[in-house]
């Protein structure tokens, strides 16, 4: 029995030696955090060595199990980092936009985090645990997830499962809302939101008259349709093809995000028909003109205002227009309802 334990222990030692910690932690974008995590890993190894030396026939069962688990994770990290060093960024980009169907700005963002900042190297590391809680941390975690999904999809690995397990064990959550925007402040924004102020801000957008018309129409379009900004952008650019003058039938599905059908406000419809505006998503230059400072609230917040207003008409219909009703029966039913209720909707006093 003792011999068996001894053998097991040797095996553990071997596998521990087989995995070089240096290769697991290579280049870093946060040298300071790296130093911290290295120190932690160092002290962890020291404590394990101490236990082994004092008792050659193994420490407690719990300790051994923990070590085996740690070793298996270290191996996964090494393989992940190896694959990361040989990744084809072009294929990764195609995966994000075509397989994952992420929006153009989202793909750009993920590529920046993965390629330029090398966030993948924080896979299952102490660095990510120590990273200050912020929106940026969420993006870094997102980026690592996308890399995992790409490898899992392409090479049938199981990096994502290990990553989720790691985050769960370390009590890492994706939520950042508690840091910057508490529900209380969210409610305050809503309480203080005024249509008059919003329209006033819209009238000041852009430098020229033409640019003002284009961007104020765009912001009002987000507000009246209640679509997510990227969906609203697409609907705005493709307006002439999808709008019948009253209702825009979209039925777009992107992962768990749906857009069914929304109303087109008669005033905006006229402007869009006449000017055939187009906003380029790639350049992102519209953010300089349309942002929370110039509009008075975050553009995506307008979706919530829209929902609250639509609820005056019908809560079920408001849910449908936000893309949350899912069954086919509901879709057909609500689409008919939308045409019937158009006049009532316009009368809700939007602009
Ligand atoms: Zn229209």
* List of distinct ligands in this structure: zinc ion
Number of strands: 2
Instruction: Work out the helix count.
Output: 22
The termini sit apart by 82 Å
Mean pLDDT: 79
**Element-level helix/strand string:** HHHHHHHHHHHHHHHEEHHHHHHH
The chain-level structural class is mainly alpha
For the structure shown, list the relevant keywords.
351 residues; 2 domains; two-stranded antiparallel ribbon; 2 strands; 4% strand; disordered N terminus; binds zinc ion
Short recap of the structure:
With 351 residues, this protein is mainly alpha-helical.
Describe this structure as you would to a colleague.
This protein has 351 residues and is mainly alpha-helical. The chain folds into 2 domains: 2-169, no CATH class; 185-346, hpI Integrase, Chain A, CATH 1.10.443. The chain contains 22 helices and 2 strands. The protein is elongated and about 75 Å long. Residues 1-53 and 177-182 have low confidence and may be disordered. The structure holds zinc ion (ZN). Zinc ion (ZN) is lined by residues 239, 243, 264, 269, 272.
Write the layout of secondary structure elements.
Elements: H1 2-18, H2 21-24, H3 31-54, H4 61-85, H5 89-99, H6 104-116, H7 126-130, H8 135-155, H9 159-169, H10 177-180, H11 183-192, H12 195-202, H13 209-225, H14 229-237, H15 239-242, E1 247-254, E2 257-263, H16 266-275, H17 286-289, H18 292-295, H19 302-310, H20 315-321, H21 328-340, H22 342-346
Antiparallel strand pairs: 1-2
Helix pairs in contact: 1-4, 5-6, 6-8, 13-14, 13-19
Bound molecules: zinc ion (ZN).
């Amino acid at each position: 029995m003792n011999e068996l334990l001894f053998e097991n222990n040797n095996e553990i030692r071997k596998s521990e030696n087989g995995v070089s910690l240096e290769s697991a932690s290579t280049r870093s974008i946060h040298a300071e955090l790296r130093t911290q995590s290295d120190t932690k890993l160092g002290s962890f190894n020291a404590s394990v060595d101490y236990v082994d030396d004092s008792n050659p026939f193994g420490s407690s069962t719990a300790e051994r199990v923990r070590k085996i688990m740690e070793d298996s994770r270290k191996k996964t990290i090494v393989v992940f980092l190896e694959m990361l060093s040989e990744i084809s960024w072009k294929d990764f980009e195609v995966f994000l936009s075509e397989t994952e169907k992420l929006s153009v700005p989202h793909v750009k963002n993920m590529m920046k985090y993965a390629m330029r900042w090398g966030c993948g190297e924080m896979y299952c590391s102490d660095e990510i645990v120590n990273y200050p809680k912020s929106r940026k941390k969420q993006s870094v975690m997102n980026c690592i997830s996308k890399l995992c999904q790409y490898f899992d999809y392409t090479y049938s690995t199981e990096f994502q499962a290990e990553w989720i397990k790691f985050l769960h064990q370390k009590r890492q959550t994706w939520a950042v809302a508690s840091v910057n925007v508490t529900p209380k402040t969210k409610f305050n924004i809503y309480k203080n939101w005024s249509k008059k102020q919003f329209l006033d801000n819209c009238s000041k957008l852009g430098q020229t008259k033409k640019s003002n018309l284009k961007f104020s129409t765009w912001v009002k379009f987000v507000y009246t349709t209640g679509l997510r900004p990227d969906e609203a952008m697409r609907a705005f650019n493709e307006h002439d093809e999808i709008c019948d003058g009253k209702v825009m039938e979209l039925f777009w599905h992107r992962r768990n995000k749906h857009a069914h059908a929304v109303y087109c406000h008669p005033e905006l419809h006229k402007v869009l028909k006449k000017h055939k505006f187009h906003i380029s998503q790639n350049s992102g230059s519209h953010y300089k003109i349309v942002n929370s400072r110039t509009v008075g609230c975050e553009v995506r917040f307008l979706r919530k205002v829209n929902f609250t207003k639509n609820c005056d008409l019908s809560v079920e219909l408001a849910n449908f227009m936000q893309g949350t009703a899912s069954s086919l029966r509901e879709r057909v039913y609500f689409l008919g309802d939308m045409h019937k209720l158009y006049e009532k909707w316009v009368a809700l006093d939007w602009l």
